[in-house]
Structure formats: C-alpha cells, structure tokens
Amino acid sequence: MDFGFGAEDEELRGQARAWLAEHLVGPYAQLLGLGGPGSEHEGAGPRRDWERELGRGGWIGQGWEAPEGAYGQRRLSLTGQVVWAEEYAALRAPGRVGHIGENLLAPTLIAYGSPEQQRRFLPGIARGEELWCQGYSEPGAGSDLAGIRTAAVRDGADGLFRVTGQKIWTSLAREADWCFVLARTEPGSKRHRGLSFLLVRMDQPGRVEVRPIRQMSGTAEFNEVFFDGAVAAEAVGAEGDGWTVAMGLLALERGVSTLVQQIGFAAELERVLGLYAASGTADPVVRDRLVRQWAELRTMRWNALRTLGTQGDPGAPSVAKLLWGGWHRRLGELAVEVRGAAAAAGPGTWAPELPYELGLDEEQRLFLFTRADTIYGGSDEIQRNIIAERVLGLPKESR
C-alpha cells in the first residue's frame, strides 16, 4: 500500500495539533509523559479524566468498522489514524488507560458480538467512561493460552456464568470496570475446545480480587486477578467458540499502536545517544551498536507502515513483536552500558510516585523493565512457532 500522506491528512494533522494544544492544559499538562510501558500506574486517576476528554472530542474509536458518529467517534482513514497517533505521541500526551477497550475489545465486538452487545458496550468505550482489562494469561498458561484452567459454569437460578480461577499479568486491572475473560465452559474439555469469551464486571466485592505484582524495577502495573464465582454478563460469540474470538482479538493487538510505541522508542534512543555524546568516550563498538539501533528503528517503522494494510495476515503481528521486543531489550542494555559504573549505583534522583518503588533513574528503570520485552505479550519462542506453523506451514511443535 502507498502510505504517503495527502492533503486531507495534513489538514487533519493541523486539527490534531490544535486540539491537543487547546486541551492538554491545566491538570492534563501535568500528565505529559506519564503512563507509558513500565509506568502504566502513573497518574491513573487523572488519566481516566483525560480519557473522557478524548471521548468528548470524538478521538476514540477512529478505526472502528462502524459508521462515523454511530458512537460519537470520528471515522478516520488508516493514514489519518497514523497522523493522529503520531501527533499524540510526539507531544508526549498521557498514556491511554482506555486503549484495551478501544483497540482490542471494541473491534472484537464489532466482528463477533451481537447488535445488543455493541449497543451496550461501544458507547461507553467511545465516551471514555468504561475501561477494560484482558483476562487471558494464567500461572500455568502464559503464552500457551490453550492450557487455561479458569472455569465458568452456568447458575441454575439465572442462567448466568459464574467464573472461578486466576489470571495473571493483567494490565490496568485496578483501574478497569470490566474484564474480558477466556474461560473453560465445557467440563473436561482440553486445549482450545470448550472455551468461551466472557465479559465480567470487576466491581464484584468478594468475587473479584486484584493483587498488584511488584516487578524488579519496583513498579507494579501488572496484576493478579482472582475470580471466585464472579458473575459474567454474557459471552461474545457462541458458547464454546471462545478460542476463535480470542485469536481474532489477538490479530488486532498490533497495528497503529506499534507506530505510537516507536515514537516513544525514538525518544529513549535520543536520550541514550545524548548520554553517549556527553560521556566523551569514543568506543567504536558501542558507537556501532547505537547506529544499528537507529537503523533498526527506522526499519521497524517502514515494516509497521507496510503491514498496516495486511489485515488478517497471521504472521504480521508476530514479526512486529519479535522486532520491537528484541530491539527495546538491547536498548536497555545499551543505556546502562553507556552510563558505565554509575548505572550500578543505588537509587538515583528520580522521585517515585508509589512508596514501594526503588527510586531508580531512567536508564536503570529502562534496563530492568526491558528484560521482560521478549516475554510478555507472547514470548519470542511462541511468536516464532506462530510464524513457522501458520505462515511457513512447518510441522507443529510436539507437545
């Protein structure tokens, strides 16, 4: 596809800049740079207010396959979505607390949900009023989702599902109003059979418990979620067909958001380059690695633009994850290497927002958090298996 930006895109770019400049003021100006990967806990409450501000501006749901304005949203072309995302990231606007609902659940409801489910849930997401989290991974079923054990049974009194089990690595679980949960609804079923895609309200005292997971970086944006007979409002798609719905959702997980992520990566790389220049060293090996980081980031952008038009390509999301996961991890390693011995020192000058954080400086936090980049969101091993089996047609891995 040709991803050159036309006159309409440039007009939109001006509108986006003007709207952001007008609205990123007052308390919202204090949120600039907060809420990115590794710091999703920062300013969660005010960022929720910002989500509603975006909803009032019609900036949520731009890429939904729904008529423009059906849920109060603007309908933008693919290049228009890229323009908005790039302008948003360039200004270091607050990390989105509603991105899981907007970019994962909403398109899934449009593709697999009933008209009633779309009318019930899409307006709240578009207004920035209802936040979602994702209930997939479990302690014994991380990248291998087919091994999940969370179970749901129908209650005879009202016919609704009651969900019991544990999910892990759940981002934004403390902030979310709802969770979409992959659960086993057919007793005795194995692997991908007998699963259903359920919608569970988080505000169920005694039935839903969220426990933050403290990481080695000191932050705790991931969580464990325990369900003890929690009521599920309904299932998306047919009962027992949850695997199809869940895989359809995962195919949407990359995309325009990858380009936004890369703008953040570019800012981090620029900081590391500045540290290298300020150090006064001339290590040719480190210099070569920094140049490679710059070149690889440009290549990732071109690849992301190329694959935006390949909807349904089973390999594109996995290739993107492999590229950025390894790249970001290497950047974290370079960050502390450029700092030298100072990177091994104790807490720096960064003032933590949460009392249990370690007080690390930016390079230390970058290094520690990026150790997980090749694991979360589907490990490198799983991504390579997907490419081998679904794209190249190689024999499946023995189990």
Question: Under CATH, the topology of the largest domain is which?
Answer: Butyryl-CoA Dehydrogenase, subunit A, domain 3
Tell the overall outline: globular
Can you summarize the main beta sheet? 7 strands, mixed
Number of strands: 7
State the helix count.
11
Mean pLDDT: 83
Low-confidence stretches: 348-357
Q: What is the CATH H-level superfamily of the largest domain?
A: Butyryl-CoA Dehydrogenase, subunit A, domain 3
The percent of residues in helical segments reads 40-55%
Give the end-to-end Cα distance, rounded to a whole number of Å. 39 Å
- CATH top level of the largest domain is Mainly Alpha
| Integer count of domains | 3
Family: Belongs to the acyl-CoA dehydrogenase family.
Organism: Streptomyces erythrochromogenes
Cofactor: FAD
InterPro entries: Acyl-CoA_Oxase/DH_mid-dom, Acyl-CoA_Oxase/DH_mid-dom_sf, AcylCo_DH-like_C, AcylCo_DH/oxidase_C, AcylCoA_DH/ox_N, AcylCoA_DH/ox_N_sf, AcylCoA_DH/oxidase_NM_dom_sf, Mycobact_Acyl-CoA_DH
